[in-house]
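Sample entry (241 residues):
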Amino acid sequence: SSVFYPLSLDTGLPILARMTADAENMDPLVKKIIRQVEYYFGDFNLPKDTYLQSQVKENEGGWVNMETMFKFKRLADLSTDAKVIIAALKKSDSGLLEVSDEGEEQKLRRNPAQALPENNEETKKLNDAKTAYAKGYNKESTTMDELLEYYAEHEPAVVNIQMRNYFLKEDRSKHFKGSVFLVFRTEEACKAFIEAESKEYKGVQLIRKFKKDYFAEKSAEYEAKKKKKKKGGEKGEEKGE
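Predicted structure, serialized as tokens:
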């Protein structure tokens, strides 16, 4: 995944926000703004986003002004018009955000009625239990925007998508692996996705596993390779002797 703004520690990607009943008729830009801003203030990102948390704590009532929000590159790429951002957020019915455009300054905050999860080991375990590994996406053409659009329509229980990348040592260039981590709103929704008879993306059957099972398999593969390498080394020493 990519870091969208320089001062934040978060490296995740936008939440698939719950839209209003007539979301299908909603302007595409409005949808993207809602997804992006609700991601910043959502349960997945805000607990570990030290920069945004510092802004929330510094301002009375937890309000954050739009001047601060435009430091987040992905939001600024969508629009740098505060009125456009505020107007879009008013169309979300998730209840996550409160907005204010009274007076000259437009600002927003996370709804104080929605308690923020703590950034601890327990929260990490809960998130991992709701995260699926999925593989089968085109490595060359898949984009985050198309993933967001697709899962907003076909899997509304998905609240976060992380594209898995690798870096070439030669030039440190980033490349998509063809797999993603999908965080679901509940463990039950994640299980339903994984255990479904069929899940496709652009006509390609997806390989699906729980994130924890995927890492367990990779760990076992790594240990097996280590043992094989060690065994090969011991045979080589015997032959040399």
